[in-house]
Design goal:
- It is a single chain.
- Helices cover about 40% and strands about 10% of the residues.
- By secondary structure, it is mainly α.
- The chain has a domain at about 165-310: Lambda Exonuclease, Chain A.
- The strands form three sheets. Strands 3-6-5 form a three-stranded mixed beta sheet. Strands 4-7-8 form a three-stranded antiparallel beta sheet, with no helix packed on it. Strands 1-2 form a two-stranded antiparallel ribbon.
- One of its GO terms (biological process) is DNA repair.
Length: about 300
């Protein structure tokens, strides 16, 4: 292989061709000496010839299937659509028909908690809570209109106001919902407007014509006007301990003895009166009763407690 004096064209003279290949490669490298190699640049792919720009997208939204796979899937989808079109459409079942009721009856027997039953009569009745609704508290009778009344008008309205008598079911519902007592907001709301055991003495000793404002506030807003002293704090702290000691002693002396938590008990005939005992007791020998626990702050030492117990 040699070179012509008139130019750079290579003249083949039956010499080694690989030398020419090397020279071509060297010439190409010299021409592109400023270009970076593909390994020196970020990863990139060849742009398909049929598109000019491909917008970026999350990997989950990119279809990596080949053209052949896409075509096969499209063909199978068309065949399935054609098959569905040939199927005979069934006429809808009329609500209330024998077939309709039979279906939901079978659904009730096999899947009684199915959501489809909640909106169908009469199957929806099984989803109605069995518990009795709590009666309205005194606070719920307050309206924007009554808040605008003058004191004399409000007094006249209160004179005519009466709480409705309660049913046995409502009395039981109040008691169950208020067993948390001072830790229950329902307990405070149901005590509002009622004379309870804790304020009965103050009610009997106040002037009926002009009752003490503090007493009225304590009755009408028990949650906002609850009080706490060293004596009440001491009693609350040791009530559980005293109750456990009481249960141990009574269990030994009474057959089948039990002591359960108690909520607010309201008189059904006089619904403005109620009481919250510390517990409800029962045994086989004496029946049912109530438990009232007292932890006297002034008698903290053990000797005095033994004396009080007799």
């Amino acid at each position: 292989m040699g070179t012509s004096r008139l130019g750079t064209a290579i003249v083949w003279q039956e010499s080694c061709s690989h030398v020419g290949a090397v020279l071509f490669a060297v010439e190409d490298m010299v021409k592109r000496e400023d270009e970076l190699a593909c390994t020196s640049k970020p990863c990139e792919w060849l742009m398909p010839s049929h598109v000019k720009k491909i917008p970026p997208a999350p990997v989950a939204c990119i279809d990596f299937r080949s053209s052949q796979a896409k075509r096969q899937n499209r063909d199978s989808f068309s065949e399935a659509a054609a098959a569905r079109a040939k199927r005979t459409r069934r006429s809808p079942v009329e609500p209330g028909s024998e077939k309709y009721m039979s279906y939901f009856q079978e659904l009730t027997e096999n899947f009684p908690k199915s959501a489809a039953l909640m909106a169908r009569d009469p199957f929806h009745k099984a989803f109605i809570p069995k518990s009795t609704k709590l009666p309205k508290s005194v606070l719920e009778y307050r309206t924007p209109l009554t808040l605008q009344l003058q004191p004399k008008e409000l007094e006249q309205l209160c004179q005519a106001f009466e709480l409705d008598e309660l049913t046995t079911a409502q009395v039981g519902a109040i008691e169950r919902a208020t067993r948390g007592q001072s830790s229950s907001k329902t307990w405070f709301r149901q005590r509002a407007g009622r004379i309870t055991a804790s304020n009965l003495r103050r009610v009997l000793h106040t002037n009926a014509e002009k009752p003490a404002k503090a007493l009225i506030k304590a009755i009408c807003y028990p949650e906002a006007h609850r009080f706490s002293t060293a004596a009440t704090s001491y009693g609350n702290k040791h009530e559980g301990q005293a109750r456990r000691a009481y249960e141990r002693m009574m269990t030994q002396e009474h057959e089948g003895f039990s002591c359960m938590d108690s909520g607010l008990w309201v008189n059904p005939k006089w619904p403005y009166m109620g009481a919250s005992p510390d517990g409800m007791v029962a045994c086989n020998c004496h029946g049912n009763g109530i438990c009232e626990i007292k932890c006297p702050y002034s008698q903290q030492d053990e000797a005095n407690l033994e004396l009080t117990a007799g």
